[in-house]
């Protein structure tokens, strides 16, 4: 379940990962309330979207992951200090256990946002390296096309192509392909 995400400049986005423990038997009610909350929250200035990650089936706790994105830190603070958010917390108070566990997600972790908890950094780094290597190779082949350009123009063009390929093609593809490995515990 996710709402429509607007298009801010990617370098300004702030992502917050939230874990909520939902009481057994109250999951359907929680999901109904959060769907309404996502719709209402999407109308707030500076909110760029939210994504709900349902718990895995099993006997364990019903821990839901929420990834919420904002245009800036200021928009994030404004949202979490708002009456809307306070009312939301009051609405689900009887459905959840304890307070939400929240943390900002930075850099590489943002590519791995469909996981309730980010994989170990070494897994994120390895998968990123797997993506970067062919991207750098492929776009460095374009360097002869840019040879007549000054180096300070050619380099940003090549790196822009690499970053675009990582953001919109390679990392989304690799995180889907390697999802079971990323989720597997390394303990």
Structure notes:
The protein is of the alpha+beta class and 187 residues long. It has two domains: 10-105, 2-Layer Sandwich (Alpha-Beta Plaits), CATH 3.30.70.100; 121-183, no CATH class. Helix content is 48%, strand content 19%. The protein is built from seven helices and four strands, in the order βαββααβαααα. The protein has helices spanning 27-42, 73-80, 83-92, 121-140, 143-146, 151-177, 179-183, and strands spanning 14-22, 47-53, 62-70, 96-105. The protein has a four-stranded antiparallel sheet.
Defining key terms:
187 residues; Alpha-Beta Plaits; 4 strands; four-stranded antiparallel β-sheet; alpha+beta; 48% helix; disordered N terminus; single chain; 2 domains
Q: Which helices and strands appear, and what pairs or packs with what?
A:
Elements: E1 14-22, H1 27-42, E2 47-53, E3 62-70, H2 73-80, H3 83-92, E4 96-105, H4 121-140, H5 143-146, H6 151-177, H7 179-183
Antiparallel strand pairs: 1-3, 1-4, 2-3
């Amino acid at each position: 379940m996710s709402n429509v995400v607007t298009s801010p400049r990617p370098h300004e986005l702030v992502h917050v990962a939230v874990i909520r423990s939902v009481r057994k038997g109250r999951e359907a009610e929680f999901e109904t309330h959060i769907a309404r909350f996502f719709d209402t929250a999407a109308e707030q200035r500076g909110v760029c979207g939210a994504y709900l990650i349902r718990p895995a089936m099993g006997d364990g706790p019903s821990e839901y992951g929420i990834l919420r994105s904002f245009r800036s830190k200021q928009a994030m603070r404004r949202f979490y200090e708002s009456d809307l958010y306070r009312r939301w917390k009051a609405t689900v108070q009887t459905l959840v256990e304890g307070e939400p566990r929240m943390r900002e997600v930075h850099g590489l972790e943002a590519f791995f946002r469909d996981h309730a908890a980010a994989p170990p950094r070494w897994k994120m780094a390895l998968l990123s390296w797997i993506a970067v290597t062919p991207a750098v190779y492929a776009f460095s082949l374009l360097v002869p096309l840019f040879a007549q350009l000054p180096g300070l123009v050619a380099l940003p063009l090549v790196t822009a192509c690499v970053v675009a390929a990582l953001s919109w093609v390679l990392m989304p593809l690799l995180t889907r392909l390697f999802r079971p490995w990323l989720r597997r515990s390394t303990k």
